[in-house]
């Protein structure tokens, strides 16, 4: 089982419009969702990635069994230096782990602060 935030080198074994199927050196299979492949829109995954290509990615989720989820985008955004960032925090939204900053605890407060203004603007 991998730790959240661990950096792995994996091989692409399948490409779909919704993401990359990858395999680690131990033979475990995982997925890199299209939204985690780059910080920009990818029009065609087949033009960006190749089967057999090795990529580095950071572990976002590991269920402890056979499957795990990775992110190339998170690794690019941190420029590969995860030591400057706090350890990833797990919180569940449809059983997905998200990489967040530990001091950020705003919840719905920003939405609540702007809601009345948005309503008034829409009613104009």
Question: What is the subunit organization of this protein?
Answer: single chain
SSE run: EEEHEEHH
Q: Could you describe the largest sheet, including whether it forms a barrel?
A: 5 strands, mixed, barrel
**Proportion in helices:** 10-25%
Query: Can you count the beta strands?
Result: 5
Number of helices: 3
Radius of gyration computed on alpha carbons:
18 Å
Shape: elongated
Q: State the name of the first-level CATH class of the domain at 4-78.
A: Mainly Beta
What do we call the CATH homologous superfamily of the domain at 4-78? Nucleic acid-binding proteins
Q: How widely separated are the two ends?
A: 55 Å
For the record, the CATH architecture of the domain at 4-78 stands as: Beta Barrel
> Into which percentage range does the β-strand content fall?
25-35%
CATH topology of the domain at 4-78: OB fold (Dihydrolipoamide Acetyltransferase, E2P)
Strand order of the largest sheet: 1-2-3-5-4
Which class do the helix and strand fractions yield?
alpha+beta
Overall pLDDT confidence = 79
Residue windows where pLDDT falls under 50 for at least 5 positions: 89-97
GO molecular function: mRNA binding; structural constituent of ribosome
Organism: Pediococcus acidilactici DSM 20284
Pfam families: S1
Domain S1 motif: 5-73
């Amino acid at each position: 089982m991998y730790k959240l935030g661990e950096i792995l080198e994996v091989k692409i074994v399948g490409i779909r419009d919704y993401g990359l199927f990858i395999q680690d050196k131990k033979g475990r299979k995982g997925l890199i969702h299209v939204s985690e492949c780059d910080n920009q829109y990818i029009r065609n995954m087949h033009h960006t990635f190749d089967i057999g290509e090795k990529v580095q990615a950071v572990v976002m989720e590991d269920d402890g069994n056979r499957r795990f989820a990775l992110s190339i985008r998170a690794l690019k955004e941190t420029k590969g230096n995860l030591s400057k960032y706090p350890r990833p925090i797990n919180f569940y939204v449809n059983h997905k782990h998200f990489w967040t900053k530990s001091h950020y605890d705003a919840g719905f407060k920003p939405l609540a602060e702007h809601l009345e203004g948005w309503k008034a603007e829409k009613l104009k």
